[in-house]
Amino acid sequence: MEKWEKALYKFLEKYVHQDWFEGALLCGSYAAGNQNEFSDIDVTIIASNSLGWQEKSNCYVDGFLMEYTINPIFRFEEYMEESLKEHNYTNQYLLLYGKVLYDVHGEIQKLRDKAALQVKQPFEPLSDYDKKFIKYYLWDRYDELLSLSKKNLHLDLQYWSLVDALITAYYNFHNLAHVPHSKIEQILTNPDFAQRYHVKNMPHPEFTHKLVACFKAKNKKQKLATIKDFYDFVMNSDGGFDIGQFVGKRALKK
Known about the structure:
By secondary structure, the chain is of the alpha+beta class. The protein has two domains: 3-118, Beta Polymerase, domain 2; 128-245, no CATH class. The protein has helices at 3-12, 28-32, 73-85, 90-97, 107-118, 128-150, 156-173, 184-189, 191-196, 205-216, 220-236; strands at residues 21-27, 41-47, 55-61, 64-72, 99-103. A hairpin with a 2-residue loop joins strand 3 and strand 4.
């Protein structure tokens, strides 16, 4: 057993004998086997529904940083539903691909079975109304970027904010499961890395090409060119957008 594993089980000793303890999973980079010197040890602890609280905390054990959550079963079920509404499988994948350390009464297996069914279901598509306002928001952000450029002001913050918003919009437009933006370049350009993070539905290759170009842009001229290219691609991938014809209207519920 490696040092980090000894530290992990040492950490769990204070929980495994609690009346409410149902089980624990190892998640994150240690579960995927690609941890590095900056990795913490992610642990998800599942409690019975009798538990009247939840917790997210960190602590050091023998030099290893433990990042852990404690949630009753019903709360984790709610998190799974929230994930679906946000177009991601974060909590489902945590259950399906986390390493089960304890499962006292089989409750984690029940949650895994539910997660397995959920990841096979398509996300609820965005309404046309919601899409219109996302495009309006993107247009407004892009317009602000151009304004900063014309005033010869710094545009890096607006540039990266728009890149982030365009990624989110594209994934929402095309009902793709969101991936961590901190890892998106590796996921899109390294098939082995994508497989380790269980990414199954990838965006169009042109999306990857234009996004990576944004990452590589070094000066103002390159950034303005690449962000325009990326912006146009995302907008046109869902029918385009004309600010002069924008109408966002829907009936109100009484």
